[in-house]
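User: Predict the complex with S-adenosylmethionine.
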Amino acid sequence: MERIPEPELMEEKEQVISYDEADFSEGEVNLINQINQYLLRKNISLGEKDLIVDLGCGPGNISEKLAIKWPNSEVVGIDGSKEMISRAQYNKNTNKKKLKNLRYICSDIKDIKSNNLLLKKKISLLVSNSLIHHITNLEDFFNTIRSLSNNITVNFHKDLKRPLDEKSALELKAQCSIKYNEILTNDYYASLRASYTFKELKNFTLENNLSSLDVFEDGDKYLVVYGKV
Ligand SMILES: C[S@@+](CC[C@H](N)C(=O)[O-])C[C@H]1O[C@@H](n2cnc3c(N)ncnc32)[C@H](O)[C@@H]1O
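Assistant: Here is the predicted structure with S-adenosylmethionine placed in the model:
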């Protein structure tokens, strides 16, 4: 199936509310467990000196879980959509856990370097979930993670995998509509068509001097890019 890009930022109020109100907790908990397992295997423990950055953080579901899992580390969620960031800030303020180690920044990932975001520490863990498919040109995503990474940075980026054909995409859309509302279902379908394939991500890393990053297929619906840049 040909890739059909979708708008990068999620800025429409209704779209943001639908996304925020949906329950994606099962996948989010899986992601945190996957990252934790990876860090354990590499003998990496995150503490006070460490900075965790969540790119394309949306309403902050993953950022909050990172902040709870690693309460002594600083967590920064970054998103280019003002609407998403104000939702994330609201969710943080109303969370019963204090989440003092979490803060948000509104910035397009393509502008992070030039915006000089006052990230005072080196990033130890650079995460994203469901961000890559929003990025029109893959080099913008990889240039960002390259510029934010240093010799200690562990990258872990998870996203949808583009279905093989339109029929499979429509089947996934139909499954989605059982659980989620129309706005979310349409967004999900657009996301599936905008996603990258394993081959596209893997080839990009091989052709752009990023072969220290690994790419794997996580079940039949997801892809993960991980490792050091
Ligand atoms: C599908 S949501 C995922 C949100 C969150 N990571 C999660 O898993 O719940 C994608 C988010 O990436 C943000 N985004 C897309 N392109 C971006 C860009 N170029 N710079 C910053 N944020 C971006 C969107 O605004 C949106 O909030």
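The radius of gyration is 17 Å.
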